[in-house]
Amino acid sequence: PQHVVLYPLVSKSLRNIAAGKDPLEGQRHCCSIAQLHDHYSLGYPDLDELQKNPQPLIFDIEVLKVEAPGSYQQDPWAMTDEEKLQAVPLIHKEGNELYRQGKVQEAAAKYYDAIACLKNLQMKEQPGSPDWIELDQKITPLLLNYCQCKLQCEEYYEVLDHCSSILNKYEDNVKAYFKRGKAHAAVWNVTEAQADFAKVLALDPSLRPVVSKELRSLEARLREKDAEDKIRFKGIFSQ
2: which strand partners? Predict the structure, then answer.
C-alpha cells in the first residue's frame, strides 16, 4: 500500500465529476498542503476523517468498459479552448444522429454539452464583440435543436424561456417563433401562440400549411376542453 496524503482532495474532485459538478468546486486558492491543514470540511465525513488521520490506502480498480481507440471523448470541463471549439461540430453531429434514432433525451444531452462548450468560450469575450456574436450564432441553432427535444419531452416552459432569449436578440428567427408558438399552445397560452404563429407567417409565408395545421390542432383542443369543462361544471351545479 502507498501512503496518499492528498487523496481526500483528489477523491472530492472525482466525486464532483461523478455528480456533474466542477471538480475544483469548494477548493480554496492555496496550496494542497495548506488545504489539508486548514481544518475545513470537504463535505464528506469519511474524507474529513481521512484528512485528519492520513493512513495507507489500497485501491481496487474495476474495469467497467473498454472503448475503441479514438472513441473516448473528454468532458467539456476538461477540454482546452481549442479542444472545445473542435469538439462542438462532432457533438452536434452525434446529437443529430441520436435524434434521428428517436433517442430524444440523449440527443438533448449532446446539444447541451455542445452549448456548454460554446458558452464557456463566449464568457471570455466582450458581449457584443465580433467574436462573441460569432459564438452566439453557433449557439443559436444548437439551442433550437435542444428546444425541439424539450418540446417532445413536454418540457414546455423551458422551451418558452430559451426561445424568448433567442428572440430578444434575433427578432427574425422563424424557428424560435414556431417552437415558442407550439410551447404556448401546449400550455394554453392561446393569444401568445396565435401571435407567434402569425409572426411565423409574416416572416415566411411558405410555412402557411404547417402553421395552419398547428392552429387547427389548437382549435380542436380548445373545443375538446370547452366540452369537458361544460360537463364538469354541469356536474358541480347539479349537486
Answer: 57
Q: What is the distance between the alpha carbons of residues 31 and 195, in angstroms, rounded to a whole number?
A: 58
Q: Which fold has domain 73-152?
A: 1.25.40
Ranges of each domain in the chain: 4-50, 73-152
Q: Which three cell numbers stand for residue 158?
A: 423551458
In angstroms, the CA 239 to CA 231 distance is 13
Of 20, 80, 13, whose CA–CA distance to 42 is shortest?
A: 13
- Residue 78 per-residue DSSP state: G
From the list 152, 151, 149, the residue with the least C-alpha distance to 160 is 151
If we measure between CA atoms, which residue out of 139, 140, 135, 142 comes closest to residue 96? Answer: 142
**Angle at the Cα of 88 from the Cα atoms of 170 and 172, rounded to 5 degrees:** 10
Distance of alpha carbon 44 from alpha carbon 14, whole angstroms: 12
Residue that wins the pLDDT comparison between 206 and 2: 206
What's the start-to-end Cα distance of the chain, in Å? 78
* Helix boundaries (H) for the chain: 7-18, 32-36, 45-52, 81-100, 104-122, 130-152, 156-169, 174-186, 190-203, 208-237
pTM of the prediction?
A: 0.68
Alpha carbons 114 and 116: distance in angstroms, whole number: 5
Give helix 130-152 / helix 156-169 axis angle, nearest 10°.
160
Give tens-digit pLDDT for 95-120.
999 999 999 999 999 999 999 999 99
Q: Residue 12's closest CA among 1, 40, 34, 3? A: 40
